[in-house]
Design a protein that fits this description.
The protein has 909 residues and is of the alpha/beta class. It folds into 6 domains: 10-59, Phosphorylase Kinase, domain 1; 70-136 and 338-462 and 480-505, Rossmann fold; 139-332, Dimethylsulfoxide Reductase, domain 2; 596-705, Barwin-like endoglucanases (Beta Barrel); 717-829, no CATH class; 844-908, Arc Repressor Mutant, subunit A, CATH 1.10.10. Strand 35 and strand 36 (851-852) form a beta hairpin. It is globular, with a radius of gyration of 28 Å. The termini are far apart. It binds ligand MGD (2 copies), iron/sulfur cluster and molybdenum atom (MO).
């Protein structure tokens, strides 16, 4: 039978983005992933995918991938790169000491990669300095759970969110960052009209679409808010005394601390800067309902008092006995696809392995015996290593001589960016395992190792509800890329540890990991993390592994595993601990010089430092440029209007971006995205504005609370340049631009440019940038300079000088780049910046169906009065649903506008 007539084979795997951990069914044809769909059988998503998941296949392909090792800036063979790596590492370690070697890993590694990296560094290189980007993400949540429960264990599962009577979302923009879970919650709420949702966030986010109550608190005031709740519950008799007596300790101390910092509802309302009545409503709802889930995320964790905030939340659940039940519990949602797997293998510097810490009695000895293989004896360190921020400080001080970075981009994602970059530049040996060819981090690498990526890798990940799922390889790695676990094991072998790293397939690593989880794990001090039931089952079972929650029990197989149902905790006394919390302010303090509170976070369509999501052009359209969201009053004070360019400054850095005015933003606060790197803009890294202050317990940095000032960039000119794929502008004039943003599109690249230096001779300027002479130009149309380069009949580049608001719409121009020969008529229109058949649809609201804001507004004017009507006409919002909140706000905005236009003038005055 002919190949093409066969149905393309499809494989179930897992999405490599957020911690929801959705199952994906991928179809492969002719050596490429042709399509992806939600896996209807996966218990995380039951067939749904968000826009990032459904664009996965658009981010693949060899272009832009790292295909070959590099050694000292030059392409090299694997042999040369690995020989240099082992030789240099051995020499540096011999000269400077065992503990001058370090690794910095990531929650985007698979469990098997993570396990062998941890085993190599802690077990055989004998250095404790192996930490992970989860330090920037989950460290406070981990520390909070350990203090309360004696183990790092998220008690609940996704079904609890659906079964709850009250869901509290604290510091989480679920609608954008865990979209499929948000859709599940939204549906559950539609089915159960009695369910209530409270959102606690200084910004009004799209998540507020389903909120019955919104608390727009002052940034950093969550501990006071939850201490107030504890005091309220005690005062109003909403304490489960039976539960407290039987299953907890520390109540009186916690209550005393709570009362001290939260003497009354009015005092808390003032401290949190919210309305007292709304606050009391929240307290009343929480106190009254047993089935409450508090889901918390980075608005809580990324703080110098993040651990305390987690415990302030957990305290309230313990006091009310609201955990270990269906629909109840303090639920820290994980960010990365395998943040949880990293915690399981012990990837944090204060952990050893398999939920054992250095101070866990007997743990060092136990892990040493477990890892001993044949003639090889591991040499484990005796005490925890540096946490991420400390690690980079130690590198700067010269105490670390070797750093191996895997699957993370710390040159962008760490705070105190100037110091991090100084440290990286100074470190004698930096090794980077990466799958993308151009990242900020690669500039600092002595040795670059090309890693396989999603669609190529085989292994497991664990999602937010402790569910282990298989990621399955669909294609061979491109070029010379190898799997992370293979690279690590090859290096281990070259270092002489081959016997302990002789794995042939990830299933063997998983098997060992599963065995370790059950190794001497019984009786007093039993570790909760035990997946030993999954060991010893061989490769076929591993390949066929269905998503399963730990602890691996029969209930888990039915999909309902929940921890602490019997009120038995992993502390020495078996009781959960309430922690006395004294709230603290953010440590980055505001001043006359830096008066604005800086909030940083995520946008709907991008993932972290954009190395993968920016490869899908349609994901660039929702927010195309780096931005700063400001309250109109703050913008006004700085002389800024919407779409202006602004400069944010902090003591050690600067950030330049486009202004978005927003009433969703509190006064005195600014919000910027964490995503932009030097690959996409000139000065748009959030880390440049943040200090490296950390939580004393967890070591997590305070990336939600910077202190900055804002001013106008006031450029002499702005321009939009579009260039056919492949060409890159250069030269001194280009380097001297005060602002640039690169926006990849299909078949061309759009650049937004601005400078404070006036240009007298545009044709000469363009020639300097592009090395191309101007073949067509016009400066007559609307008084704006426009120019285009047409070579061999094909549009090669297009320039318009003027602010981007005056752009004629880039969609039709983009299609001109894809044409082989432009007619004379088309050339005229391109220059005039208009096309009879083309109209600007505005920024994209619905990324799945690429429906622009303007198109939606016109449909509303044409009579569509609901999201359903818009969906029927334009298909927007009908696929992943992530844009529904934005569609609703557009409908409301347009209704509001229509009302005010109809209102008689007197009423408006
Ligand atoms: N689209 C997308 N999704 C992602 C990611 C991504 O890059 N893009 N990354 C994934 C990862 S690794 C993570 S960790 C998660 C993070 O998911 P979230 O935690 O939801 O993401 P953030 O946008 O960082 O922050 C959440 C909210 O905290 C609020 N906040 C700031 N300060 C405070 C405060 O003091 N108190 C309270 N209560 N709230 C505050 C912010 O305004 C923001 O809306 O997202 C995951 N999902
Ligand atoms: N200002 C501010 N900063 C933040 C945050 C914030 O909210 N605000 N959030 C923090 C949080 S929660 C997080 S999780 C971090 C995330 O920050 P990072 O981890 O630095 O971000 P990513 O862009 O996901 O980096 C992953 C890198 O690994 C590469 N990669 C992907 N898959 C693989 C693989 O399989 N193998 C290898 N070897 N490489 C791979 C990608 O191309 C990419 O370069 O950022 C933190 N930084
Ligand atoms: S919700 Fe998260 S895991 Fe699911 S498809 Fe979207 S990014 Fe992937
Ligand atoms: Mo994260």
């Amino acid at each position: 039978m002919h190949e093409a007539s066969c149905p393309a084979p499809s494989t179930n795997t897992t999405c490599p983005y957020c911690g929801v951990g959705c199952g994906v069914t991928a179809t492969v044809r002719d050596g490429r992933v042709e399509a992806v769909e939600g896996d209807p059988t996966h218990p995380a998503n039951f067939g749904r995918l968000c826009v990032k998941g459904s664009a996965l296949h658009e981010t693949l392909g060899e272009q832009g991938r790292l295909l070959t090792p590099r050694l000292d800036g030059k392409l090299a063979s694997w042999e040369a790169a690995l020989a240099a790596l082992t030789e240099r590492l051995t020499a540096l370690q011999a000269t400077h000491g065992r503990e001058t070697v370090a690794a910095y890993l990531s929650g985007q590694l698979l469990t098997e990669d993570y396990y062998v990296a941890n085993k190599l560094f802690k077990g055989f290189l004998g250095t404790p300095h192996l930490d992970t980007n989860s330090r920037l993400c989950m460290a406070s949540a981990v520390a909070g759970y350990k203090r309360a429960f004696g183990a790092d264990a998220v008690p609940g599962n996704y079904e609890d969110l659906e079964e709850a009577e009250l869901v509290v979302l604290a510091g989480s923009n679920l609608a954008w960052n865990h979209p499929v879970l948000y859709q599940r919650l939204k549906l559950a709420k539609e089915r159960n009209p009695l369910m209530r949702v409270v959102v606690i966030d200084p910004r009004v986010t799209d998540t507020c679409e389903i909120a019955d109550l919104y608390l727009g608190i002052q940034p950093g005031s969550d501990a006071t808010l939850f201490n107030g709740l504890l005091a309220f519950m005690a005062e109003r008799g909403h304490v489960d005394t039976r539960y407290l007596k039987r299953h907890t300790e520390g109540f009186l101390d916690a209550l005393e601390a709570a009362r001290k910092s939260a003497p009354s509802v009015a005092a808390v309302a003032a401290a949190c800067d919210i309305d007292a009545e709304r606050l009391e409503t929240f307290y009343y709802w929480f106190a009254r309902h047993l089935h409450v889930v508090t889901l918390y995320s980075q608005g809580v964790n990324q703080s110098t008092s993040g651990t305390d905030k987690c415990n302030a939340i957990i305290n309230c659940h313990l006091v009310g006995g609201k955990l270990g039940l269906p629909g109840a519990g303090p639920f820290s949602i994980t960010g990365q696809p395998n943040a949880m797997g990293g915690r399981e293998v012990g990837g944090l510097a204060n952990q050893l392995a398999a939920h054992m810490d250095y101070h866990t009695p007997g743990a060092i000895d136990r892990v040493t015996r477990f890892w001993a293989t044949g003639s090889l004896a591991p040499c484990l360190p005796e005490a925890p290593g540096h946490k991420a921020i400390e690690l980079f400080e130690a590198i700067e001080r010269g105490e670390i001589t070797v750093l191996w970075v895997m699957a993370t981009n710390p040159a962008v994602s760490l705070p105190d960016a100037a110091r991090v970059r100084r440290a990286l530049a100074k470190c004698p040996l930096v090794i980077v395992s990466e799958c993308v060819a151009n990242t900020d981090m690669l500039a600092y690498a002595d040795i670059v190792l090309p890693a396989s990526g999603w669609s190529e890798k085989d292994g497991t990940v664990t999602n937010s509800e402790r569910r282990i799922s298989r990621q399955r390889g669909l294609l061979p790695p491109p070029g010379e890329a190898r799997h992370d676990w293979q690279i690590i094991c090859e290096v281990a072998t070259r270092l002489g540890f081959g016997e302990a790293f002789g794995y042939n397939h990830p299933w063997e690593i998983f098997d060992e990991h599963a065995r370790l989880s059950g190794f001497e794990n019984a009786g007093v001090g039993k570790r909760l993390f035990d997946i030993s039931a999954l060991a010893g089952r061989g490769r076929a079972a591993y390949d066929a592994l269905a998503p399963v929650q730990w602890p691996v029990t029969r209930a888990a197989a039915r999909g309902t595993a929940r921890l602490f149902e019997e009120g038995e905790f992993a502390t020495p006394s078996g009781r959960a601990r309430l922690v006395a919390v004294t709230p603290r302010e953010p440590e980055q303090s505001l001043s006359a010089r830096y008066p604005l509170r800086l909030n940083t976070g995520r946008i709907r369509d991008q993932w972290h430092t954009m190395t993968r999501t920016a490869r899908a052009p349609r994901l660039m359209n929702h927010r195309a440029e780096p931005f700063v969201e400001l309250h109109p009053a703050d913008a006004d004070k700085a002389g800024l209007v919407d779409q202006d360019l602004a400069r944010l400054t902090a003591p050690d850095g600067e950030y330049r971006a486009r202004v978005r005015l927003s009433n969703a933003q509190r006064r005195g606060e600014a919000f910027i995205p964490m995503h932009w790197s030097d690959q996409f803009t000139g000065a748009g890294r959030s880390g440049a504005l943040l200090s490296g202050r950390t939580d004393p317990v967890s070591g997590q940095p305070e990336t939600k609370h910077g202190a900055v000032s804002v001013s106008a960039l006031a450029p002499a000119w702005q321009a939009t340049l579009m260039i056919r794929d492949g060409a890159e502008p250069e030269g001194a004039a280009w380097q001297a631009l005060d602002y640039w943003a690169r926006i990849p599109m299909a078949g061309c690249t759009r650049w937004q440019l601005a400078s404070t230096r006036p240009v007298d001779d545009w044709p000469a300027e363009i020639e300097a940038w592009l090395g191309a002479s101007v073949t067509l130009f016009s400066d007559a149309a609307a008084g704006r300079f426009r120019a285009a380069g047409v070579y061999n009949g094909r549009l090669s580049w297009w320039l318009m000088v003027g602010p981007p608001q005056e752009l004629p719409g880039t969609g039709w121009l983009q299609s001109r780049f894809n044409e082989d020969a432009l007619s004379a008529n088309q050339r005229r229109r391109v220059l005039a910046g208009c096309d009879s058949g083309a109209r600007d649809a505005g920024p994209v609201v619905c990324s799945c169906h690429q429906v622009g804001r303007q198109t939606i507004i016109e449909a509303i004017h044409a009579g569509d009065q609901s999201v359903e009507a818009l969906g029927a006409r334009l298909a927007c919002g009908t696929q992943c649903g992530s844009c529904l909140p934005e569609l609703k706000s557009l409908l409301e905005e347009e209704r509001g506008r229509a009302r005010s236009e109809q209102a008689p003038a007197t009423q408006l005055a």
